[in-house]
Amino acid sequence: MTEESSTVDSENPSAAHSDAPYRLRASSQGKRLFGLLIDLVLIILILNTLDSLFRQEHWDLKQQARSWLDLTWFYGGAMLFLVFRDLSQNGSPGKRMLGMCLRKIENLNERVPKDRLFKRNLSLFILPWEAWEIFRDPYGRRLGDRLAGTVVIDNPDAMRPMRRLLLSNLLFFGFFVIALGLQQPNMRKTSAFQVAYEVVKEDSRYLELKAAGLELEEPELHLDFREDAEDSRVRFRVNQDDEVQIFEVVLALVQEPSAHWEFKGLEFQTLKQEEED
Q: Per CATH, the architecture of 184-276 is what?
């Protein structure tokens, strides 16, 4: 893109007589796409954080696949963010991090009203076409920009690049710290599995089954993380033709001196397939 084609006021002579101290420039296509990528990464971080924050710990922690309702909430939230991401009038987080802003095409010194911002992002439902339009238009205006009468320009009042870089790093580091804090239940589950597996693999009954070529199936975890916790249980199964051997490890979560799982016992039983069903 040449310097003449990237200068927005060459298309709008009225903007050349504005109070702007220098000619405002349309943001490059690569910068626009990188800003969109930042927005997508940010919404994925937000949705995953909210999902982890509001996920309740159940007594039965048997792993299950996500339902279609969970997936609808996740992808629906991402699409809503793409539609409403510019309603702050200064542009989306990705635009701000890269020093861009949204302005009216007829007056580059005026911010865009919210109704026009909403109209602009509705066309994101046809995202592949929009990305192609950015490369076709000399000013990087996609279909939504032409419908709403907007243009993305390099913000002359943007913060210095080093300050923007610092704030961006702090933002993403904050999500990283939150993720570490929310990983504690998962770490406890992993620890419970490791303790239970170490107990079972040393049991003579399992060693006989292993010698016969049989393996443990995926465990069922029944864990209690409360302060006044009941006994937690990790159950392993070994399936044979007409029998099921069940190893059930009983654990207790001890908080002092540091949180850890304490082995309390191992229960073993053999059931017929009919009884198991």
A: Roll (3.10)
